[in-house]
Amino acid sequence: MIDQYLSQQKFDELKEELNTLKTVKRKEIADKLAYAKGLGDLSENAEYHDARDAHHDMEERIAKIEGVLKFAVITEEHHSNVVDMGATVLVQQEDKNESERLVVVGSEEADFEQKKVSNESPLGAAMLGRKQGERFVVETPRGRIHYKILDIE
């Protein structure tokens, strides 16, 4: 697995979620499984199958979080004139008058509605290492989009 870039806040959120899953949720699902088994015939027991599926999903989530935390690299506050992890970047598509303020984050934190762009996304990867005033192109399924970096915070 590769480095997983996280803010300290996201790292703490994932640790808390992992703790809840391992303590509270595991017990809840174990209780549901025990109850469903007590209902008898497991082959046609919908409650048992639902609880078993919930258990499987929870264990997958636990494994994913543990993997992310194992390879977590905490991003510091950005203090550079170059776009890197944690940078807030004011960009403008060259064919539009509006600018957009984006934060470059790791893939686990990416949320385009909150303007958090993954460093692994085409846009995030294209911005990394660039300076204020630089222009760059992002290849998308709909074609090339030309951007300019207006400011880096």
Contiguous low-pLDDT stretches (5 residues minimum) are none
What is the CATH architecture annotation of the largest domain? Orthogonal Bundle
Quaternary structure of the protein: single chain
What is the third-level CATH name, the topology of the largest domain?
A: Helix Hairpins
In DSSP terms, counting alpha (H) and pi (I) runs of 4 or more, how many helices? 3
Mean pLDDT: 90
Q: What Rg is obtained from the alpha carbons, in whole angstroms? A: 22 Å
Shape: elongated
- State the order of secondary-structure elements, H for helix, E for strand: EHHEEEEHEE
Tell me what portion of residues adopts beta-strand conformation.
15-25%
Please write the CATH class name of the largest domain: Mainly Alpha
CATH superfamily of the largest domain: Transcription elongation factor, GreA/GreB, N-terminal domain
Question: Which class do the helix and strand fractions yield?
Answer: alpha/beta
Roughly how much helix do the residues carry, as a percent range?
40-55%
- Largest sheet: spatial strand order: 5-4-3-7-6
The main pleated sheet reads as: 5 strands, mixed
